[in-house]
């Protein structure tokens, strides 16, 4: 792999707090190495801003390994930037070339209000989980792990859905700000397992009700969510969610 | 005096007897007892959920925006349990023995036995929660092997075991939030402990969005705040991992156990330059199938594929034929450093060794061909099939490697180098996980308890969940049973006011320094001192220098740090400054501890104490103890020793040959 350095123009959304209107500010950055991660490029810029006695740009991040779901930048019109199946923190600068202009914004959705600069409030996702995204089993109640054999294909599908990191890119990509991919991933993860069976119906109904209450939009099957999901959560999950939802609504009369 | 409170009686009966005789709190009283849980990683989330289920009033805190994002999420490889599903001779005793030996005989027998004993229940609990562990075609749970053991007892979910376990615990926690048993405070950081009449009674924390300081009362306080590997600046830990909660408790009187015991993980992606903000682990599970080597010739700059088989040195297989590539982490890390220091390193920095999958790909390909009765499959077909198998096992790790380095590990060997990964040291706790401050508990990586001088792979997840699901629910009752007459203490109590004022003063002083250097620059300098002088190899002279350098750095920090922004708003630079200030003080204590321990054991390698073959040389006659440090004011500590009494295992020179 050949390494190179580049000079870039960044247009970054700055917003003091949730009541501020916010706007783009342009920064030039120099000598960025193609080996840096996108966030390391931000570190370099922030160090410079501190030196110049300006406030650094606030952004969410923690693991920088593509797994915690904290990082969340909308880069050149795409959540998490140009690479498929990749979080912002795993995007590396070799995705860009010398002279590029990069526009960076926060997730935009009514249910994800901006807190500051590129940081948004995603606690609505936690409340959706509270509504039913679990299996009700108290500690100490479990039977031997191998007493519940699970067909490998089902276990694998369940795992694929459980890979969702709750980042919210699906919402940010959707013109309706729908959270269907996120919710369907959780519903599928649990519905595909025998352990999740007893609460299958109430789970889907309650989670969808909470999703609506949080103000997320409806799904019109544009598929933008799947295209940007860093964990490549499949649209099949939304189909499964719809089936589960219809089944549950009919049976419970809700 | 330091009383570890290990129950009397034979090893196998200690925990059973404890559970049968500890005090209980009746349900009506539980509803009146408030418990603070700082941290919602595996240890904290499992504790908070389980205590909520029992009926206690729980308040839980994390600095991320959601408990699902705790650093535990990043654990890749797996979790151990003595299930013996593979019929390969595993047992509670073997898991206990491997862990004691892996820890180089510096952990407590009683604690480790209990850990092994509850390990099987953890797997059951997680399966019941819907954790999608890897399974075999028959539908049963799958296992893999890990370093330091000769059985297959590691349960896993591809390379995302930590994520799946944490999501399980997080869901259990959110269920308790919905039921009103747990109140969750995310984007909150504990900045001090409140003690009243010598007991832990609450915390002061900062709302990281508004900057406001808040007072919270609890009949007991549990610190589950994770490890302090970021004292080295570069580590495999998440960016936010810090020592602050534990350090504040330490300064309030809690002893710090074995601070210098840190684990350097052998398989991480090497540093590329000054911009590097963190290091990425390549799971230890990769050592299962990958072979580690360097060229036999010094300074060989040929590409890996151009170096013929007989010019490669598979140094782990050569030096440790019994365990080969699966020796424990400390041994593997030092062996890599030894080769690189001797001039055999690879890559542009020469600070790397190869982790090669070519042989595994071919082996798996042949097995697949066999399964499909393709006896005459050509090499390309075999390689293709082998790659598919490897992809299924380690796909996400390989993808991650490629994203970071731009190289395809299915085609060229990965380059790896050791990096700081885990801290065995932490707050000193007794068998009940209580620190020496009554009512203050410490769980998970933040305590010092179970891993001695070196942790075996896949045992941190096990310990965090053991502490939270199966230990604390019993041991906390033994304390709270005597607290049922204590009514909730209002937070206008002078102790709360006083502690909050101290926190406020400290934040003001930090903000008023208005110096010239960023927090980050101090953190980097601290990290360099620690890595150079208190890292993979240490010696008395270097450690003495490090202490002086850190003291100077501390003075410079407190006179020249520059923190932009304000106090009453979201201010990540201020958050970081609070943490780095504590890391600097911790760094000094780590060096003092390393200097005091005149032996090599596990991850603590003092160059003065090694065998002729360069292996760690323990001094059992002098150092069979836990070092528990008591804070006595600026740059001053007293050492307390907890003798380690081995009743069952006989410590010997660890051998993996
Ligand atoms: C990359 C990587 C891979 C790993 N892989 C494995 C593996 O395969 N198997 C294994 O067994 N172990 C593994 N480990 C180790 C293991 O993941 C950790 O030791 C373990 O998860 C720690 O869990 P914990 O609950 O103690 O702490 P953490 O998960 O670190 O949680 C700490 C919590 O405390 C909170 N917190 C911290 N300070 C404060 C404060 N001041 N105020 C409020 N909240 C605070 C945080 O918000 C967080 O919620 C790995 C570690 C790393 C770095
Ligand atoms: S479905 Fe994908 S994009 Fe949406 S929250 Fe989960 S991981 Fe993120
Ligand atoms: S910082 Fe954790 S996923 Fe990006």
Spans of chain A of 5+ residues with little confidence (pLDDT < 50)?
none
Our measurement of the CA-to-CA distance between the termini of chain A, rounded to an integer number of angstroms, reads 58 Å
- Main sheet: strands, sense, barrel of chain A: 5 strands, mixed
Q: Examine the coordinates and then state which fold CATH places here, giving the name of the CATH topology of the domain at 266-419 in chain B.
A: Flavocytochrome C3, Chain A, domain 1
Approximate shape of chain A: elongated
- Report the order of strands and helices of chain A: EEHEEEEEHHHHHHH
- Fourth-level CATH superfamily of the largest domain in chain A: Alpha-helical ferredoxin
Radius of gyration of chain A, in angstroms, nearest whole number: 20 Å
Biggest interface, CB < 8 A? A-B, 79 and 83 residues
The stretches of 5 or more residues of chain B where confidence is low (pLDDT under 50) are none
CATH H-level superfamily title of the domain at 266-419 in chain B: Succinate dehydrogenase/fumarate reductase flavoprotein, catalytic domain
Describe the structure in your own words:
The complex is a heterodimer of chains A (254) and B (657). Chain A has 254 residues and is α+β, with helices and mostly antiparallel strands. Chain A has two domains: 5-115, Roll (Ubiquitin-like (UB roll)); 122-252, Fumarate Reductase Iron-sulfur Protein, Chain B, domain 2 (Orthogonal Bundle). In chain A, 35% of the residues lie in helices and 14% in strands. Chain A contains eight helices and seven strands; from the N terminus they run ββαβββββααααααα. In chain A, the strands form two sheets. In chain A, strands 2-1-5-3-4 form a five-stranded mixed β-sheet. In chain A, a hairpin with a 2-residue loop joins strand 6 and strand 7. In chain A, helix 5 packs antiparallel against helix 6 (200-213) and helix 5 (180-191) crosses helix 8 (236-252). Chain A is elongated, with a radius of gyration of 20 Å. The mean pLDDT of chain A is 96. Chain B is α/β, with parallel strands linked by helices. Among the domains of chain B are: 266-419, Succinate dehydrogenase/fumarate reductase flavoprotein, catalytic domain (Flavocytochrome C3, Chain A, domain 1, Alpha-Beta Complex); 500-616, Methane Monooxygenase Hydroxylase, Chain G, domain 1, CATH 1.20.58. Chain B contains 18 helices and 21 strands. In chain B, the strands form six sheets. Chain B has a five-stranded parallel β-sheet. A five-stranded antiparallel β-sheet of chain B has the order 11-15-14-12-13. Chain B has a four-stranded antiparallel β-sheet with strand order 16-10-20-21. In chain B, strand 7 and strand 8 (213-217) form a beta hairpin. In chain B, helix 3 packs parallel to helix 6. The radius of gyration of chain B is 24 Å and the shape is globular. Classes of the chains: A alpha+beta (254), B alpha/beta (657). At the A-B interface, helix 1, helix 2 and helix 3 of A face helix 3, helix 5, helix 6, helix 12 and helix 13 of B. The complex binds flavin-adenine dinucleotide, iron/sulfur cluster and FE2/S2 (inorganic) cluster. Flavin-adenine dinucleotide is lined by residues 38-44, 61-64, 70-72, 74-79, 161-162, 188-190, 224-227, 236-237, 241-242, 244-245, 281, 421-422, 444-446, 458-461, 464 of chain B. Residues 38-44, 61-64, 70-72, 74-79, 161-162, 188-190, 224-227, 236-237, 241-242, 244-245, 281, 421-422, 444-446, 458-461, 464 of chain B line the site of flavin-adenine dinucleotide (FAD).
